[in-house]
Amino acid sequence: MNQSSDTVVMVRPHHFASNPETMADNAFQSIAQQGLNVAKAAYDEVTKAVELLQSKGVKVHLFEDTGTETPDSVFPNNWFSTHRTGELVLYPMYCNNRRKERRADIIEFLQETYGYEKTLDLSVLEQEEVFLEGTGSVVFDHDNQLAYGARSKRMNEKALELLCEQLGYQPIAFDATSSDGKPVYHTNVLMAVGSDFVIASVDMIRNKEEQQTFVRSVKNSGKALVPLTEQQISNFVGNMLELEVNSHKLLAMSETAYRSLTTEQIRQLEQWVELLPIAVPTIELGGGSVRCMLAQVFRKP
């Protein structure tokens, strides 16, 4: 199983704003960023990000979001994921206006282009107030069939277990909180998994037993653990995604994240990947960063 892919889906927003519905539990979000300037800046950031990724050989399927009711549409990784084993998974979303991001045209395009044989629709769990927000809530180690998840309103452990049962993965759930005791709202701000490394803030897993389980799991997976501080997490350093074009690995991240890495961490990561910083300061006001903007597309081998 391969950790990375060379293809992503991105959504360019026309009415980006800081989502009032997600403000309560997303500590990464800035208050009330809206208006034409913010929307235009976010639109331009996506345009430039697409150009940069394409210049590195990444295949980008770009969709436009012209709707006014979907302020977070720029983060498509939360509502679907694709898998080499032939599944397309749809996820249950915590906020009402985020459920409107699910698009039949994107689902159809992916099914027709990549021939996913099975659509696993977990979105029905919304009716039971059970949520699991895609690769925001779940960070997959595809090489080792592991699924890491930090418990929160948006990561229900039962839903994680149900997903893993269907995919044949092993769930690894834990509590992760900031120093003021707030749960980390999405696992993918806490950690990222590459082919050769896992980058994570282990200290934010406060329960010693769960922390040891996590560290042991990374060690057993044969990947190097690159530890992050809570300060780095607040600068989106955990929110990275490895991509691979013709055996050349790239690590996409925001410029905010890149500037927060230490010289030693950069040296360490550059053994395995080319670091690719992308400027998305406006989009980060919405509480997500580069990883959240990239929904990976895996083809069946």
From TrEMBL:
Keywords: Transferase. PANTHER family: AMIDINOTRANSFERASE (PTHR43224:SF1). It comes from the Bacteria. InterPro entries: Amdntrnsf_FN0238 (IPR014541). This is Amidinotransferase. GO terms for molecular function: transferase activity. Pfam families: DDAH_eukar.
